[in-house]
Amino acid sequence: MVLEQPPVIINLSPTITELEEEHDLFQVAVEQFLIAADVLGLDNDMRKILSHCQREVIVNFPVEMDDGSVEVFTGYRVQHNSGPGPTKGGIRYHQSVTLSEVKALAMWMTWKCAVVGLPYGGAKGGVQVNPKLLSQAELQNLTRRYTTEIQPFIGPNQDIPAPDVNTNPQIMAWLMDTYSMNVGYSVPGVTTGKPIVLGGSEGRNEATGRGCVFAIENAARIQGLDLAKSSTVVQGFGNPGSVAARLMAELGSAVVAVSDSRGGIYNPNGLDLDAVSAHKARTGTVVG
After folding, report:
1. Which of 39, 88, 220, 261 has minimal Cβ neighbours within 10 Å of its Cβ?
2. Are 269 and 254 within 8 A, CB to CB?
3. pTM above the 0.90 mark?
4. Tens of pLDDT along 99-129?
5. What is the pLDDT of residues 123-164, one digit of tens each?
6. Any domain includes 190
7. What is the number of domains present in the chain?
8. What amino acid positions are annotated as catalytic residues?
9. Structural domain of 240
10. CB-based contact 288:280 (threshold 8 Å)
11. String of DSSP letters for 44-109
12. How many CB atoms lie within 10 A of CB 79?
């Protein structure tokens, strides 16, 4: 099949690029803010305030592993600005997480909330860990201990975590349960992205990927690109990427390639996304 238009490339991979490694990511975020501040005509006092994060928490905490040994992990929780209201932002589990990265993401969360008029400031969290190397029990131990360490700084009226890279509704359920046990009563509002049965929101699981496709549809319309005659390549076939791939296929775009942290697959005639998702659920990767 000859495709008449160029491919749509969707990058939803959490991998830090070489450019980001060479430059301090938070400094990049500040530079972006200052460009926007010039356009908005913000005064110097407001620039100074918003160029810094309000609170940066670093925790080093022990976790008992399945073999009885103890490993110490480093976690972060950063609140950029609580002026608009409680801060809000995801928690990611990744071996490359740094304080600079978390600070930048917290700042960007402030702007995202402001752009759509939500009464929240930005926050972000992360733990330096490769969760793919942990068992389910170890992952639960890590989540519960990390939650306990940052508990003084989170809460439904203070700072509300959410899923991010390598975290999911189960992680949020453990976080909510740990927080609730520590205060002595159930606090479902401490996190979003919970399982539906615990008060989570319908559509939350698909929201990131769907938002990506909304942006693609608008960009395609402006560029005069017929998505039904274009192919799609998705880098990062996790939750957002797999949802975006399925939605692009529903729009008539042939998804010809997808990848994850272990490699990629390609079929010029289009991939069977149901088969790819089933294979990843079974093996942990799209490769094979």
Report:
1. 39
2. yes
3. no
4. 999 999 999 999 999 999 999 999 999 999 9
5. 999 999 999 999 999 999 999 999 999 999 999 999 999 999
6. yes
7. 2
8. 124
9. 8-12+207-283
10. no
11. HHHHHHHTS-SEEEEEEEEEE-TTS-EEEEEEEEEE---SSSSEEEEEEEETT--HHHHHHHHHHH
12. 26
